[in-house]
Automatic annotation (TrEMBL):
This is Methyltransferase FkbM domain-containing protein. Residues 84-188 form the Methyltransferase FkbM domain. It comes from the Bacteria. InterPro entries: FkbM_mtfrase, SAM-dependent_MTase, SAM-dependent_MTases_sf. SUPFAM superfamilies: S-adenosyl-L-methionine-dependent methyltransferases. Gene3D superfamilies: Vaccinia Virus protein VP39. It comes from Paraburkholderia solisilvae.
Length: 206
């Protein structure tokens, strides 16, 4: 059921579909995608479908999201790099989270009074990707249930290397914060799909 709902939101409603971005991913020899908010891995699989030479970094605070995605991908899956952390503006903090279903698309660091609790470590996007030495990121997808703007605060180096940002919004505060950060980093809004904002790096910005 979670996969059906995810497909409906992302594809039937066209949330992440964009001709320019898909063209960008189909043609390079080795495109790089950073997907923040893996959930059941539908978008992870979509990026690889567009280009089988793509490397996809998936970031999610739920280890179960990576396990489910890897099971669906099958072997070999060396093109998918799972990173487990709660993206934040700072590194290394212990954060208590509450959830019912680890594969729910609505899991959030702000959710309280659910069936299960666990402690997860926070990390900035820059720190999460630092060891991989990425020179460019073709697409950064951000869908982390209201914490996207906070995560962008910890991503100045990542944004310098990024061409497109697909940002799913969850409220006015997140929209305002993310828009300010992305504009300051040289991005312009090129499309709006329901709750999803699509940005491209201005060509005049290095």
């Amino acid at each position: 059921m979670a996969e059906v709902l995810n497909i409906h939101d992302n594809f039937a409603k066209g949330e992440i579909r964009h001709d320019v971005i898909e063209h960008q991913l189909e043609h390079p020899e080795h495109p790089v995608v950073v997907d923040c908010g893996v959930n059941v891995g539908i978008t992870i699989r979509w990026w690889h479908y567009l280009n089988h030479n793509a490397t996809v970094f998936g970031i999610d605070m739920m280890a179960e999201a990576h396990a489910f995605t890897c099971k669906r991908i099958g072997e070999p899956n060396d093109w998918y790099i799972p990173i487990t952390c709660a993206l934040s503006a700072s590194d290394g903090k212990a954060l208590s989270i509450s959830f019912d279903d680890p594969l729910s698309g609505e899991n959030s660091v702000a959710t309280r009074q659910r069936t299960h609790t666990r402690t997860v470590a926070t990390a900035t996007l820059d720190a999460s990707l630092a060891e991989y030495g990425l020179e460019r990121i073709d697409v950064l997808k951000m869908d982390i249930e209201g914490s996207g703007a906070e995560a962008l605060k910890g991503a100045p180096q990542t944004l310098r290397k990024t061409r497109f940002v697909i940002f799913e919004t969850h409220g006015r505060k997140e929209i305002s914060g993310a828009s300010d950060i992305l504009h300051a980093a040289g991005f312009e809004l090129i499309d709006l799909r329901n709750r999803t904002l699509i940005y491209e790096k201005r060509t005049s910005v290095a």
